[in-house]
Amino acid sequence: MALSYAFLGAHYTCRHFGGACLCFCGVAIIVTSDVRDATKGDSSDEDNAWFGDLLCISGSFLYAVSNVVQERWVRCSGGPPSFLGRLGAWGFGVSVAQAAVFEREALFKQGSTGWNARGAGAWTGYTAALTCAYVITSWFLVDADAALFNLSLLTADIYAVIFAWLVQGHVVSLLYIPAFCCTMAGILVYHRAPKPTFSSGLSVLVAADSSEETEGNVFIINPVHDDEERAVQMGQ
User: Fold this and answer.
1) This prediction's pTM
2) Rg of the chain (C-alpha set)
3) Strands 204-207 and 217-221
4) How far is the C-alpha of 180 from the C-alpha of 220, rounded, in Å?
5) Which residue, among 87, 63, 60, 64, has the nearest Cα to 74 in the 3D structure?
6) CA distances (Å), 228 to each of 197, 219, 222, 232, in order?
7) Is the separation of the CB atoms in 153 and 183 below 8 Å?
8) What is the pLDDT of residue 188?
9) Which are the contacts of 137, defined by CB distance < 8 A and separation ≥ 6?
10) Is residue 219 classed as helix, strand or coil in its secondary structure?
11) Minimal CA–CA distance to 191: which of 133, 119, 140?
12) Secondary structure of the chain: what % helix, strand, coil (to 5)?
């Protein structure tokens, strides 16, 4: 929310801050649970728990920065199609450079032995999953905002808990239940609040709703003041 305020000119209500605080309470409960479980072992386990949680929080912050930048690009570059085209072009170049520097030997080795069905399937599934994620996220940011998206990602812990319990056989702390409930309650409070307002310099070009008689036209969606109309018809 602070990043959105600084870079997007977003303005939030008390209900938005209340929902975010509930989500932070859920995160605090999870951290407390990890540290409490680590204290049952030696001191090194406790240090590792704190360090691991710190790395997770740092990673979440960097991911939040990425999502705010993504939201700005979506709103300022002509909408999701333009954003996805630029992201794909630059991402392809960066990925090729990284592969050439860090995975050159592995690629040559794989090329000499040939691709098997398992490796090709894993590569295809990974690529398809990332493609779907970025496409869905870009359209999500047209109607919502990066803060709601990042808060929603906090619920991902429940999948890690279920995996650890069912697959790895770990004993899961019961504190994860109130943590998940706090997070879900915070997301619900945030979502039911009025949408945040943004600076008037941000706009999104999207296709017109097919249910209206606007064939051949587009709408400029301005996520700005509550009293203004959010859509202005513009002829091609």
Assistant:
1) 0.66
2) 22
3) antiparallel
4) 38
5) 87
6) 11, 15, 9, 10
7) no
8) 93
9) 67, 70, 149
10) strand
11) 140
12) 70, 5, 25
Phi-psi category of residue 219: left, alpha or beta, with phi > 0 → left and psi -120 to 50 → alpha: beta
End-to-end CA distance of the chain: 35
What's the residue count for the chain?
236
Ranges of residues in the chain whose predicted pLDDT is under 70: 38-47, 107-115, 199-236
Residues 7, 106: Cα–Cα separation, whole Å: 40
Residue 66: closest CA among 51, 80, 87, 93 = 87
Residue 207 belongs to what H/E stretch?
A: strand 204-207
Q: 221 in helix, strand or coil?
A: strand
In contact, 95 and 126? CB cutoff 8 Å: no
- The one-letter amino acid code at 62 reads L
Query: Do the Cβ atoms of 40 and 190 come closer than 8 Å?
Result: no
CA distances in angstroms from 111 to 104, 107, 115, listed in the order given: 10, 6, 7
- What token pair was written down for 159? 């999948």
pLDDT in tens, 119-159: 778 888 988 998 898 889 888 888 888 888 888 888 887 88
Contact indicator for 23, 181 with CB cutoff of 8 Å? no
Structure tokens at 184: 């879900």
